[in-house]
Amino acid sequence: MVRRVSLQDVANAAGVSKGLASRALAGYPGVATETRERVSSLARAMGYHASARARALAAGKNAPARCLVASLGLAPDALGRSFYGPVLPGIAAQASSEGLDVHLAALPGAPENAARMLAQLVAEDRADGAILLTFFPLTAEAVQPLEQARLPFVLVNRHIDGHPVNCVTPDYGGATSRAVTHLVGLGHRRLALCLPDVPVSTVRDHAAGWLQGLAQAGVDPIDAPILRFAGHHERGAYTLARRLFDGSLGDGAAVATAIVCMNDVYAHGVLTAAAEAGLAVPAQLSVIGFDDIIAAYLTPPLCSFDPRLYDVGVQAAELLAAALRGELAAPRRVMTDLDFVCRSSCGPAPAQGGR
């Protein structure tokens, strides 16, 4: 694990006290030129960076705290166009009132290298606290460098089962349960949930909410299966839906009259497959998506759950500020509500034999 180089490490290497090393690096008078140059040279060679937290304390309690918004595994140019795009202005807007000085950094790499990437962030001491935006599946091991360094952080759209962390997550479970209730209220009894087969917390939340909704509505899970496809891409949902409609999935899934998708992109794949199969939406098939980013522009306009991502960003900045102020006795998970936007892709269940 990469360890942050401390001022004491530099002082020891230079053979001086920690206080003298600090004065040498800060440019205070009264330090011999030879000593100043030796300490500065060693600091550069050892990769020492002055602690942002120490600077803030020295400046006084009202000094702005540096908040690093880290896109883990996602390039900055892609971040703005992604799901997380609307989160950023929410963070920025709330940060000013919370006394946070926000800057953005990309941490490139693969999911298996998440711990190393965050360890490097710790070693560089780039901020007082961090908000992490990622599509990676995160584990307790991945965030261990942040916890060991006692660097406050907030996960957005991710939580870690069995390992409490500060995080802000849309209530996907509750919204998926509401989707079941809505469809059952329209008379549907043969349903399907379309999910990617990836080990991320959002997928688990959708699945748990689905099963909860079925139990509350009295629908047998056999009549409302969770259907999974490989990868994250729209093509996977499209291919799955084609098999669903031609009956090749078996287990009676082909007679589903309503499908809920984890996001609008997957729902677009389902709508495309339905059109190719000659299924009229919503007369023969109802479809619901999530995220409400492209939903209004699909054919027909898609019913979708809006996660209010701007508000998610606001909540993330608030939570990090509270952690930096020492106001949290334990890690806190904030769950935000989603708004159901009903358009033209849902309708009453077709009469028996209509499919």
Describe the structure concisely.
With 355 residues, the chain is α/β, with parallel strands linked by helices. The chain has helices at residues 7-14, 18-26, 33-46, 52-59, 76-79, 87-98, 114-124, 140-148, 172-185, 201-217, 234-246, 264-276, 309-324; strands at 65-72, 100-107, 129-134, 153-156, 167-170, 191-196, 226-229, 258-261, 286-290, 303-306, 333-336, 339-341.
What topology emerges from the helices and strands here?
Layout lengths: L6 H8 L3 H9 L6 H14 L5 H8 L5 E8 L3 H4 L7 H12 L1 E8 L6 H11 L4 E6 L5 H9 L4 E4 L10 E4 L1 H14 L5 E6 L4 H17 L8 E4 L4 H13 L11 E4 L2 H13 L9 E5 L12 E4 L2 H16 L8 E4 L2 E3 L14
Parallel strand pairs: 1-2, 1-3, 3-4, 4-5, 5-11, 6-7, 6-8, 8-9, 9-10
Antiparallel strand pairs: 10-12
Describe the structure.
The structure is a single chain. The chain contains 13 helices and twelve strands. By secondary structure, the chain is of the alpha/beta class. Helices cover 42% and strands 17% of the residues. It starts with 6 loop residues before the first helix and ends in a 14-residue tail after the last strand. A six-stranded parallel sheet has the order 2-1-3-4-5-11, sandwiched between helices. Strands 7-6-8-9-10-12 form a six-stranded mixed sheet, sandwiched between helices. The longest helix is centred in the middle third of the chain and has 17 residues. Helix 11 runs parallel beside helix 12.
